[in-house]
Amino acid sequence: MKKILFIIGSLRAKSFNRQVARVAKEIIGGSAEVQELDYSDLPLLSQDIEQPELEVVARIRKEVSEADGLWIFTPEYNMSYPGHLKNLLDWLSRPVKPMDYATPTCINGKRVAISGAGGKAATADCRAKLTELLTFMKAEVIKDQVGIAVPAEAWGTDVLVLTDEQKAALKALADKLIKG
């Protein structure tokens, strides 16, 4: 059974993107094993602490390496991705062996799906920039993405209710991620 690792780009407990990830997990059901990556204790990347490899970095790299695919659910911050998500990706892009840039990183060649829930633009700028970054990192980004414009009433209740059309789009993306 394939393993899909969810990466939530929001730290907020009631995050709309966390809610979308829950729906995606329900949609996937028994088609794949789903796990959410916890990177809340990952320090900011600094060459001063890069080697020897930190335990948290080793754990995260192992989880990413063992996954058949990654699915990123992220909000848009100022027309881009959140800083903590960028920090995670920076760590994943670094060589495991010091200065060994010839050996592939744990994200190199990894299939990645991207979804985002946010304002009226449905995280379009964030998803485009994230696609550019992940492509540079040699990840295999699935072209079809799911952007969700959060309705006005949800901002007051912290509850996002997805439409059947949005669920169908998530299902189609899940199928592409799982089936390769």
Automatic annotation (TrEMBL):
<dbReference type="InterPro" id="IPR005025">
    <property type="entry name" value="FMN_Rdtase-like_dom"/>
</dbReference>
<feature type="domain" description="NADPH-dependent FMN reductase-like">
    <location>
        <begin position="3"/>
        <end position="148"/>
    </location>
</feature>
<dbReference type="InterPro" id="IPR050712">
    <property type="entry name" value="NAD(P)H-dep_reductase"/>
</dbReference>
<dbReference type="Pfam" id="PF03358">
    <property type="entry name" value="FMN_red"/>
</dbReference>
<dbReference type="GO" id="GO:0010181">
    <property type="term" value="F:FMN binding"/>
</dbReference>
<protein>
    <submittedName>
        <fullName>NAD(P)H-dependent FMN reductase</fullName>
    </submittedName>
</protein>
<dbReference type="GO" id="GO:0016491">
    <property type="term" value="F:oxidoreductase activity"/>
</dbReference>
<dbReference type="GO" id="GO:0005829">
    <property type="term" value="C:cytosol"/>
</dbReference>
<dbReference type="InterPro" id="IPR029039">
    <property type="entry name" value="Flavoprotein-like_sf"/>
</dbReference>
